[in-house]
TrEMBL record:
The lineage of its organism: Bacteria, Pseudomonadati, Pseudomonadota, Alphaproteobacteria, Hyphomicrobiales. This is Ubiquinol-cytochrome C chaperone. It comes from Borborobacter arsenicus. InterPro entries: Ubiq_cyt_c_chap (IPR021150), Ubiqinol_cyt_c_chaperone_CPB3 (IPR007129), Ubq_cyt-c_CBP3-rel (IPR014569). Belongs to the CBP3 family. Pfam families: Ubiq_cyt_C_chap (PF03981). Residues 35-173 form the Ubiquinol-cytochrome c chaperone domain.
Length: 179
């Protein structure tokens, strides 16, 4: 009886864990950091994880039912992961809420900018937003155009993936082409 009542939670956790694992793996591809000069720092990794979370959310936006629930669990997992990382960096209990609030604002600001550029089909605006967020101190970052091309390709690849497959825990991001 209990399995029937609570067994679905375990299956849903398996699905969301599988999806989150794929999102994190895509964000941690070495080519981003070695070839495209994304800073391999906590903030650089946050930026890439945020970008891939955005791509997932952009794919499932407007969907209801189970997909909406999966998206919410993944968003919760993302922020729990960010909080855990802050604590691992030595941020104390008093500092975590303030930093989480700032990182949440950063995340949602970026998703707005990225979505706007994608929906307008404006690769230059997307590259500018990526450069502004990922390499804010660089006068120029030539790899931002390559990353923008990757984001556009990933958005198209994800749009072509079946929602049933995603709801079953499978999501695939395109390859990252080295220099």
């Amino acid at each position: 009886m209990f399995q029937r009542l609570f067994g679905g939670r375990d299956r849903n956790r398996t699905i969301t864990d599988a999806l989150y694992t794929e999102i994190v793996a895509a964000a941690r591809r070495p080519e981003f950091y070695s070839d495209w000069e994304v800073p391999d720092t906590p903030l650089g990794r946050f930026e890439m994880l945020s970008l891939h979370m955005f791509l997932f959310q952009h794919r499932v936006r407007g969907e209801g039912g189970a997909m909406r629930e999966i998206a919410q669990v993944l968003t919760d997992d993302f922020f729990a992961d960010v909080e855990h990382s802050l604590r691992e960096l030595g941020i104390g209990d008093m500092g975590v809420p303030k930093r989480m609030k700032k990182l949440a604002r950063m995340f949602y600001g970026r998703t707005t900018a990225y979505a706007d550029a994608l929906e307008r089909g404006d690769a230059d605006a997307l590259a500018a937003a990526l450069a502004r967020n990922i390499k804010p101190d660089a006068a120029e970052w030539p790899q931002s155009a390559r990353l923008a091309s990757y984001v556009i390709a990933a958005d198209k690849a994800l749009a072509g993936q079946d929602l049933d497959g995603i709801a079953a825990g499978t999501i695939r991001f395109p390859a990252v082409l080295a220099n």
